[in-house]
Amino acid sequence: MELPSSHYSATRAAALAAGYVCYRRGSPGRGLALRAVRRASRQVIDDVGHKYHLELVLEDVLDKDSTVNCTAEVLYHLGNKNIAPAVQFTIEGELKNTDEADNTFYSRIKSLEKELVAENIPDSHGSVSPEMEPIRLLAQVASGYVIWQNSTENTKFQLAQIKHVKQVKRSDDCLEFDYMILLHEMVSQEIIPWQMTVLWHPQHGVQVTQDSCQPKHALE
């Protein structure tokens, strides 16, 4: 069944798909965000669930003039909230190469004498300092995993802010960060604290090794 591109169920599935694409293809040098839903349809698969077929436009968070078209399928499994939606996607065209930006960030963090600690990104004015931009993009990429794992047809999550981030010392080549983020659930308008442990290496990409929803008083 064809859906209007602005239909609430289409925009929820599109937000999930965009978060998943960002998780799979993003890095500290590249964040991808949903620019527009071009086309959407919903297929009811008996005894399985609802599958959404989507045509999306994604934009580069750092360069909003840089966009790519993306087709995606999102399958919400019937009745089982413990299974993450199945997402498949194809990007048309090439994403900008971010090797230089990623390697520069990696070298900078590796050369720090003390582990990085920061909070409130963006700040109360919505600003992000240039040196914290890769930290924010890494959180956006990792939050794409959390959003994918916890989405249903009745949710629409978005990363609102990094409340706190702390680098964790490691003996191997990976960078590790412990994040406390705020997720905005747009349907209920709830702000949800979420902890996530994130590993990253330029050659191996992003891995969320641990994540958990936190009680509201965790922010106090």
Question: What does it look like?
Answer:
Helix content is 22%, strand content 43%. It is built from 3 helices and 10 strands, in the order βαββββαβαββββ. A hairpin with an 8-residue loop joins strand 4 and strand 5. The mean pLDDT is 94.
Looking at this protein, list some descriptive labels.
globular; alpha+beta; 22% helix; 5-stranded antiparallel beta sheet; 220 residues; 43% strand
CA radius of gyration: 17 Å
Task: Work out the strand percent.
Answer: 35-45%
Count of runs of 4 or more consecutive helical residues: 3
Strand order in space, largest sheet: 1-2-3-4-5
Report the biggest beta sheet as strand number plus sense, adding barrel if it closes: 5 strands, antiparallel
Order of helices and strands: EHEEEEHEHEEEE
Low-pLDDT stretches are: none
Distance between the termini: 46 Å
Alpha-beta classification: alpha+beta
The portion of residues assigned to helices is 10-25%
Query: Based on CA inertia axes, which overall geometry fits?
Result: globular
Overall pLDDT = 94
The number of distinct β-strands equals: 10
